[in-house]
Design goal:
By secondary structure, this protein is an alpha+beta fold. The chain is 52% helix and 13% strand. The chain has two domains: 30 residues, no CATH class; 300 residues, no CATH class. The protein contains 16 helices and ten strands. Helix 8 runs antiparallel to helix 10 and helix 12 packs antiparallel against helix 13.
């Protein structure tokens, strides 16, 4: 199946046409297994269900004790919103969105609950060095991950990632996290009460998360590009239908409309229906042409792609293609990130 044939079949599938085996295989290879849970191994589904429950159990008291603005993003919360099923999407950790000034308070709370900042090894959890923690905090929008041993034989660890910005570490600007976290609501997932973003703010955060993934020199040089981020955004629009006028108003206040426009332009290029077109047109006034067809996350590393979005999606070895266009400075940065992140 060529790239054009794949996109044509994908659009028909999203419009209600049953997929053939070739399309199912393609979507599974692009990380879209949540579309075909009956095609995933039974043990994988059971393990994910159990892990989601365990993560929520471990974090239930933490959510109840947080006394500063926060939101749980992605993972089971996103799955519940988009699919009305917290188990539908596979997830590997608990992601929190907080303000940078609340990082120490969260750290104290997580430490009191038995979490440490470290990496999981065959010997157990190995704490990060002070240098590693400082590097990640300085160079990223995240703190170093927190890990807790659970004693559960099938889910021995729970990871908590604290994100202190909706923008990425390479960004020249910082997000207004007071504004972002003013737009939260209560939710209950499997008996656990928590805070999540409102639909429009959640979509903005999801867009920015995926903008980073589809433009990062580091991530693309390691793993290439898949349909999954575009599918996430499209299904959010299709199933949740956030208000476009509210998205635009919030995006303007946060000065992120141009990034959302890039994401929605690419979603519309792939899915090309009334839903994707309507949201793309709503964000089109925020277009910045220098971001169109751009690779990189800031002005210093940004350059134009030399192949189309379709070619990028179905490239047999995109990391190798990208490596031929990296500067010496790019390679040093990727090596440094590989060591510390």
């Amino acid at each position: 199946m060529t790239g054009l044939e794949a996109i044509k079949a994908l659009r028909a599938f999203m419009g209600g046409t049953p997929p053939d085996e070739e399309l199912i295989h393609l979507l599974l290879s692009h990380g879209c297994g949540h579309l075909f849970p009956d095609r995933l191994p039974t043990e994988k589904l059971a393990l994910n269900r159990m892990a989601v429950k365990e993560r929520l159990r471990v974090c239930k008291d933490i959510f109840a004790r947080i006394d500063f603005p926060y939101a749980v993003v992605k993972g089971a919360v996103l799955s519940q919103r988009v699919h009305n099923d917290p188990f539908r999407r596979m997830s590997g950790d608990v992601d929190l969105l907080i303000r940078r000034q609340d990082a120490d308070a969260l750290k104290a709370l997580l430490h009191a609950e038995g979490f440490i900042q470290g990496r999981i090894t065959e010997e157990g959890v190995v704490p990060f060095s002070r240098r590693e923690i400082l590097f990640q905090t300085a160079m990223s929008h995240q703190t170093a991950p927190y890990v807790k041993e659970t004693g559960h034989p099938l889910c021995p660890y729970v990871n908590v990632d604290a994100n202190m910005d909706i923008l990425w570490g390479e960004s020249e600007a910082r997000g207004d996290m007071d504004l972002v976290l003013a737009h939260t609501e209560s939710a209950n997932i499997l008996g656990t009460s928590l805070r999540r973003l409102t639909p429009e703010m959640e979509f903005i955060a999801l867009c920015l998360h995926h903008y980073k993934d589809i433009n990062s020199l580091y991530l693309l040089s390691k793993g290439g590009l898949r349909l999954k981020p575009f599918m996430d955004l499209y299904l959010y629009l299709k199933n949740v239908r956030p208000r476009a006028d509210v998205i635009c108003a919030l995006a303007e206040k946060l000065s992120v409309g141009a990034y959302l426009c890039v994401c929605l332009a690419q979603v519309n290029e792939i899915f090309s229906d009334e839903i994707s077109e309507a949201y793309y047109q709503a964000l089109l006034p925020y277009e910045q042409k220098e971001l169109n067809n751009a690779l990189g996350l800031n002005a210093q590393e940004r350059r134009s792609w030399d192949i189309s979005l379709l070619e990028r999606l179905f490239h047999s070895d995109l990391p190798t293609h990208i490596s031929s266009r990296l500067t010496t400075e790019d390679k040093k940065k990727i090596e440094l990130n590989s060591h510390f992140m």
